[in-house]
Design a protein that fits this description.
2 domains, four-stranded antiparallel β-sheet, 6 helices, globular, WH_DNA-bd_sf, WH-like_DNA-bd_sf
């Protein structure tokens, strides 16, 4: 998970993206936005020491272009995420659910798309208070969009109009 952190360290972090296999992270050039990362599953990380950085970049032909593209993508996702800070709580929760459903860890089943995430995790990623999140989850369950199965799993059913 990628989070945008406030520069003052006092404000809430903003959920930006659920990273996928092969995603590259590196410190952004302008320090206008700081990102923090948190893992939800087994993760392998290749760290290139500063002393070997130039050698690593030269040995991988397009690495600088790839890193710049990854940086631009993360900054773009950050700006999209920042817009959701002013959205309704239900929309913020829907955004997080959609991001988790689109992640490669989610798997299609006959009951819908299975996602390993608890209500509390979704609520935290969306930056929504517990009471408001409970109301939003009830709306989504009444619509038939999601169905929680135990504490840490939910099944997502896309709305009928999306299937057509």
């Amino acid at each position: 998970m990628a989070f945008a952190l406030s520069l003052d360290g006092k404000s809430k972090s903003v959920f930006v993206d659920a990273l996928r296999r092969g995603d590259m992270i590196w410190p952004l050039q302008p320090k206008q936005v700081r990102f923090g990362y948190e893992t939800r599953s087994l993760t392998y990380l290749l760290q290139v020491p500063q002393a070997k950085y130039d050698e690593y970049m030269k040995s991988n032909g397009y690495s600088e272009t790839v890193l710049m593209a990854a940086e631009l993508d993360l900054v773009k996702k950050h700006s999209q995420s920042a817009l959701y800070l002013f959205a309704k709580d239900l929309d913020r929760i829907k955004r997080v659910i959609c991001m988790l459903v689109d992640h490669p860890d989610a798997r299609p089943t006959d009951r819908g798309i299975e996602v390993m995430a608890s209500k509390d995790e979704i609520r935290t990623l969306a930056g929504v208070e517990r009471r408001s999140a409970s109301r939003a989850f009830k709306v989504l369950e009444d619509e038939g969009t999601i169905k929680f199965d135990g504490y840490k799993t939910f099944f997502f059913q896309p709305p009928i109009e999306e299937l057509a």
